[in-house]
Design brief:
Mean pLDDT: 80
Radius of gyration: 26 Å
Number of strands: 0
Shape: globular
Strand content: under 5%
Largest sheet: none
Order of helices and strands: HHHHHHHHHHHHHHHHHHH
Distance between the termini: 18 Å
Helix content: 55-70%
Number of helices: 19
Low-confidence stretches: 1-61
Length: 475
């Protein structure tokens, strides 16, 4: 990408890649003037050139625009900020998700209690889609077994938080003892996102339990809201591993999740309208392109109304006009495949307009997470890094448990996508201890699968703990 990098190199500190303004143009002229040698016979004294304020070496060492557009990046290039500041930045993920959980869960609990009260008072059992052949009431609750089976999410969420806390305390002790391995070797350990993932796992259990108080079409989004956040947090954690200085802030990430939740609500209300699917597909494609640009250029491409014009210019000058090879080939392959997957989802939604919009959105998140995880593992192995036995076991266990969980998920002992009478025809008797049905087994297995996947992410790069950061590649 020879046509773009001179712009970046001359961009002042704090500006963005691709933002072409007067300062960058004058900077380019200054570079070209200083780079020319004086003609033969010139009266220019050589000492003037030696005493010039311009020095390429300090510029390369200090300008993040120059560093982030090098052909080969190492972890030391993207972990230059003060460790304490970065760690506090990621701790905000934890505190913010607790706040979100409280404000989101309380109205949900109030709503489902109202639903259950209406069912009990009116006796109209068509309001809630239970598996009546395996519905064990307790007090005012009509299907206590479907609520109790979510206990796995909460218990495993607490266990994961305790594991993260133990690793966090050990790391802090190493830093206090000035352990060189903790300070300059391995992946920089910031645990804020892991704490947030543990809370999200617990909240998934709480909101799934709320949904199963009275399962129906209008409150199914409660069951999936924190699944979006879990998938998003996992992708952010994978990206943060090799890009600790340039990962999204908690405020930006949660604002994006808020937009996703808003779209999910609109999908429930307007999911049958063509105009909604056209609008959603446009937002989906545009967001994929914008995010891809940010990832490819390491956050140095300015996002404003002119971003797509600059993308078109770069594509035309570098790839069409000059037939240049992409500077970051691996990253480009990932983003091309990712965009194809997302555009396929957009076309599928536009053509078929699935009624279960929440599951459709969840499918988008899960496919993107799996794609990024596969890319990360492949690049890790290509870089001659190892998968230690424990993270390898977690990856295999995650795949096996997810496969078993999905089997029970698709048994569908009830379905709000059909009429109450048709849903009752799908009801099945209990299969475990005369108390739990197929969907309860899905709850137990999906909680275990999420727990193993979190452990896999927590331990995935333990093999790098003794490797200097200037030898750990960024991908």
């Amino acid at each position: 990408m020879t046509s773009s990098h001179p712009i970046t190199a001359s961009t002042p500190e704090g500006s963005s890649y691709g933002a072409i303004d007067e300062s960058s143009s004058s900077g380019g002229q200054e570079l070209s003037t200083l780079g020319r040698r004086p003609p033969c016979g010139s009266d220019t004294d050589s000492s003037v050139e030696e005493e010039s304020d311009f020095d390429t070496m300090p510029e390369i060492e200090s300008n993040k625009n120059v560093i982030r557009t090098k052909m080969f990046l190492y972890l030391s290039d993207l972990s230059r900020k003060d460790r304490r500041i970065v760690s506090k930045k990621y701790k905000i993920y934890f505190w913010n998700i607790i706040t979100i959980a409280v404000f989101y869960a309380l109205p949900v609990i109030q709503l489902v209690i109202t639903y259950q009260t209406v069912v009990n008072v009116t006796g109209n059992q068509d309001i809630c889609y239970y598996n009546f052949l395996c519905a064990h009431p307790l007090g005012v609750l009509s299907a206590f077994n479907n609520i109790l089976s979510n206990i796995g999410h909460m218990l495993l969420g607490v266990l994961f938080l305790l594991i993260v806390l133990c690793r966090d305390l050990l790391h802090r002790r190493s830093l206090e003892n000035k352990d060189i391995c903790a300070m300059e070797y391995g992946i920089p350990k910031h645990f804020g996102l892991f704490y947030a993932m543990g809370v999200a796992l617990m909240m998934e259990g709480v909101l799934s339990a709320c949904y199963h108080v009275c399962p129906n079409y209008t409150n199914f989004q409660f069951d999936t809201s924190f699944m979006y956040m879990i998938a998003g947090l996992c992708m952010l954690k994978l990206y943060q591993t090799r890009h600790p200085d340039i990962n999204a802030s908690a405020y930006s990430a949660y604002a994006s999740f808020a937009v996703v939740i808003c779209l999910a609500v609109l999908g429930v209300v307007f999911g049958k309208n063509v105009w909604f699917w056209v609008l959603f597909s446009i937002i989906h494609v545009v967001a994929s392109l914008g995010l891809s640009t940010q990832i490819y250029y390491m956050g140095r491409f300015k996002i404003d109304l002119g971003i797509f014009q600059r993308i078109a210019i770069v594509l035309y000058t570098d790839y069409i006009q000059q037939c240049s090879r992409p500077m970051y080939m691996d990253r480009m392959i990932l983003l091309v495949v990712g965009n194809l997957v997302n555009w396929s989802f957009a076309i599928f939604g536009l053509v078929y307009r699935p009624r279960d919009f929440a599951s459709y959105m969840l499918g988008i998140f899960i496919c993107n997470l799996l794609l990024y995880l596969a890319f990360y593992v492949i690049m890790k192995l290509r870089s001659s890094e190892k998968l230690l036995p424990f993270p390898l076991f977690c990856i295999v266990a995650t795949a096996v448990v997810w496969a078993a969980a999905l089997y029970f998920f698709f048994q569908n002992p009830s379905s709000w996508e059909e009429t109450p009478a048709q849903s009752r025809e799908k009801n099945r008797p209990c299969i475990v201890l005369g108390f739990f049905d197929d969907h309860d087994i899905w709850h137990f297995l999906s909680a275990a699968a999420l727990f193993f996947s979190f452990l896999g992410l927590l331990t995935l790069d333990d093999d790098l703990d003794s490797v200097p950061r200037n030898k750990i590649p960024v991908f």
